[in-house]
Amino acid sequence: MRHKNIGQFYGLLLLEVSSHIVWEGGRETLQSLFQNEAIINDGTIQLFLIFNIIAGLHYIHKRTPLLVHGSLSSQTIIIDSRFVAKINDIGSAVLSRAITKRDSVIMHLIRRRSSHRDQAAPSGSQESDIFALGVVICEIMLGHTVKPNNLLPLQIDTIQYRDPIFQLKIRHVLQWCCSVDTDSRPSIAEVVNELEPYQPTGNVVESLLNRLQKHADRLEDIVRIRTAELLSESKKVDDLLAEIIPASLVPALRNKLQIHAETFESVTIYFSSMVGFDQFCRTTSPMEVGRFLNHLYTSVDKHLYDLDVYKVETIKDGYVVASGAPVRNDRHAHEIATLALRVMEKYSTCNSPTHLPIRIGIHTGPIAAGIVGVRMPRYCLFGDTMNTASRMESHGEGSKIHISLETKQALARKPEHIFQPRGIIDVKSKVNFLIVILGESPLYGYFALMPYFDASFAICKKRFPETFANVTMQAVFEPNLPACGDTTAAMPAITGKIYQILERFSGLTILFTPGCNLEVVPLADLAREKDVPVISSTIWDPTFANRQRFPTFLSFSSRGTGGHVPATRAMMRRYGWRTVTIFCDTLSKNAAVATFISSHCQHFPKYLTVADGFQVYFERYDSTFDDDYRPRLLRARSQSRIIILLTRADEVRKIMVLWV
Length: 660
Description:
44% of the residues lie in helices and 17% in strands. The protein has three domains: 9-200, Transferase(Phosphotransferase) domain 1 (Transferase(Phosphotransferase), domain 1, Orthogonal Bundle), CATH 1.10.510; 247-411, Alpha-Beta Plaits (2-Layer Sandwich); 492-659, no CATH class. The termini are far apart. It is elongated. It is of the alpha/beta class and 660 residues long. Mean pLDDT is 77; it is low at 103-122 and 558-562.
């Protein structure tokens, strides 16, 4: 018997003590395969196993001498390495009886091939094989063994398959095979005819490989589609981030990398606002204001795409744009000027009933810029250039573009721009000096000191009118409070009074405190809270050496060498100034004064460090032999915002006259 679905019979092993029937082995039996749910519940494998068993039984019934199996079950079916089902133990019952009786029936069965069923001597019948076939197929479909009892028809009705037509067909065939009436059971040929339309081609391994290949192809298509969707969504996120922060910083922000601030030597800043916007808001509904601003910002935004500019922010009606940062370019002034002209032209032709004059301010200079914040991060610009650009806009006129001298110089290389001078105007903040004098004494009293302050201030305004045009001086005299020489018992009253004084002068820029230490200490403490520089001529006291307590205190006492530098540092940080030039006079003929000046020169590098962003330049000279300050002043004016003169009073007067 040779058939791909029949196990190979190898022979008999006859021993004196025992005898054995030898059949072909496999990787496992069908019954043991039920333990692997992932395999037995696979519809493709089920179909191949069913048709393998049917083909093997059909061969037994039609081509073998026995014509029947006699003991078909999931235990007598083996599964080989290629998942092909083979039927074993054909006629085992007959062979066992023959071995036991030691007669010649074994050789008779092997040699004789009978064509008549009634001439065979099988154990069982073909009808019982059909019943056993139905049980085996039912087990394959359910994935476990079943008992051939009265509940078998009910179990057959629970069979599920992915193809509903085959599901109905297999239920019908199994009910037919497991019929109680043996005469009504189908033959194996009828079973083959019923299920033949559903017979798979090839073998189970090829089918599984083909299905795996199709599944892999389908997964690749899914991965390709999902990857494309992911890239599309990622691009949308990047595009959205690029609308909020510079596109060059998006990868670092997405990867949560630290983004360091950087400085830009030359950037042009654009500020614009609407004249009369506050009055417009008071007389207009919020919805109309929102629609007006949206229309305004949208029309301006359209001009940004073909220009090398970056939109910084919008605040109410204010619109801020920069060029030269975050991407450096040498056309930043021209780019901003082009934008301003387009906006002015577009807005001047607008026929909106809510038309308000627009004013634009532009300034060119250095800035610092970087990402600020983690939640809703913003790319912010810092520095005096931003303040000046804002003042250019706020001091401008409606329907005009107001530019600074620095911007005009940057645009001078482009002849297509026409400039109209406006004249000198004040775009800087006022400088308010406050002089506080408590009590009355012959040396530090109000009537003793104020004539000198008034006279000095008048001389300064007359000699340096441009410098002191925005400077005001106010004095506060409190004669009822104790002054120098009193005990510290009055300190609470002094502190409270000084606090009231500082509250009244909210626009204070510099606080000047002549007098003694008793009144200076609370003034310096309260000035720290308001971040106001304190200038004092008090006698130096070790108390003021505490720079954490008195960070803005500056003393003109000859013993106060440590006070000038921290106060200068506090003032520079307050106004965003970074560069300072110090004139250090060696005074070779005056050793005492030279030592004093040298100690001051040594203190500055300790506080104004490069790590904190400061740049200190020194001009060392000897006024005894060198009185030509012009070259040094030219260098100082080109490189520094602050110039500190450490020399004699008469030399200071010479330098200030040359400066003006």
